[in-house]
Amino acid sequence: MKAAVFYDKNNIRYEERPMPTIGEGEVLLRMEVCGLCGTDIHKVLDETVPETTVLGHEVAGTIVEIGQGVEEFVVGDRVFVAHHVPCFTCHYCQRKLFTLCKQFKETNLEPGGFSEYIRVPALHVKHTMGKLPENVTFEEGALVEPVACCLHGFESMDIRPGDSVLILGAGQIGCLQIQIARHLLAGQIFVSDINPYRLEQSLHFGATAVMNSKTENLQEKVMEWTAGQGVDHVIISAGVSALLTEAMNCVRKGGTILVFAPFREEEIAIPAHRFFMDELKVIGSYSSHPYNYETALQLIQQGVIRVNDMVTHRFPLAQLDEAIHCAHSPNEQALKVLLVP
Q1: How far is 4 from 15, CA to CA, in rounded Å?
Q2: What is the pTM of this model?
Q3: Dihedral sign for Cα atoms in the order 54, 59, 63, 68
Q4: Backbone phi and psi for residue 228, each to the nearest 5 degrees, phi listed first
Q5: 311-334 pLDDT, tens per residue?
Q6: Least C-beta-crowded within 10 Å: which of 51, 98, 175, 204?
Q7: Residues 193-244: pLDDT tens digits?
Q8: Residue 5: what are its φ and ψ, rounded to 5°?
Q9: Could you write out the DSSP letters of every residue in 318-333?
């Protein structure tokens, strides 16, 4: 079989790999669509994964072989599958902090989503794989995992009808978060980015107002929008550490800041007095967990998440490097980029 294999940021090879063999409780999946995630781009460009890694984890495909003991699925089933599984019994899992579980990061698909065929381990078959309804396409199925990640972040925020939300970053994740915030009856949804195309798309997906932070002052604009009060919730969906300072200057008293995107390991200055005086909450969100997937699938199936409007580019698996360049380039009108065999 063929796979797109990482060697370094300038060397992604489309090469032959051995066909995975499956064991008891496992399935062999033919990849039909795999989404390109911002973390995939980060791992390639910052070279944070070992050579010969096959990335990709937003997977939808067709089951072509089932192992002994698999009863809920049959050959030919159309499915989505996610890549990490918690143990459900450790200190963190008992407190519903599933993504902090030690086993969580140790589990994965083999070899990864950017390959023609994928071995789905038994734990994943049991906990992170689900059938796609007839009216859900493979492209929509590939969005189950990223939507689930957004839902995991929203679990930590008490968004009430009428609340105001500021989303920093209007990429694929920011546009998903706009749609979820609208579904949760947020009163005002403001979006900041430096890409005019993505700001235009934010309005299309339901943002109340947008601003280009390259040409406008974020704090001044937010205070103008909110009559000097600030917003109830800020979601940081771009991996820029300085946005935490910006967020703390824009959130109102008693508000919440969700750090959704990964930051580099660097020190930044923040107005720390606000924690005590204004009772602010700053929380982080990493990945998704098995209890998010059914909700994510329902949001897609019912049209709350408009996947077809989000997909801007499709690349064959042999062109993963071009797909990454497209998704990362500020000159491209790119939102959601998909890979197909």
Answers
A1: 7
A2: 0.96
A3: positive
A4: 80, 5
A5: 999 999 999 999 999 999 988 999
A6: 51
A7: 999 999 999 999 999 999 999 999 999 999 999 999 999 999 999 999 999 9
A8: -115, 130
A9: GGHHHHHHHHH-TTS-
The total of other beta-carbon atoms located within 10 Å of residue 180's CB is 23
| Cα distance between residue 296 and residue 81, in whole Å | 12
CATH code of 157-284, in short, is 3.40.50.720
**pLDDT tens per residue across span 67-88:** 999 999 999 999 999 999 999 9
Laid out side by side, the sheet with 164-168 consists of: 209-212, 188-193, 164-168, 231-236, 251-259, 281-284
Phi-psi region at 93: left, alpha or beta (left = phi > 0; alpha = psi -120 to 50): alpha
Contact partners, residue 319, CB within 8 Å, separation at least 6: none
- DSSP secondary structure, 183-209, as one string: HTT-SEEEEEES-HHHHHHHHHTT-SE
Return the structure tokens found at 274.
Answer: 């606000």
Closest by Cα among 207, 171, 192 to 329: 171
How far from 222 is each of 128, 164, 212, CA to CA, in Å? Answer: 39, 11, 12
Say how many residues make up the chain: 341
**Beta strands 164-168 and 281-284, pairing class:** unpaired
What is 43-59 written as a DSSP string? HHHTT-S-TTB----EE
CATH architecture group of domain 2-148+288-340: Alpha-Beta Complex (3.90)
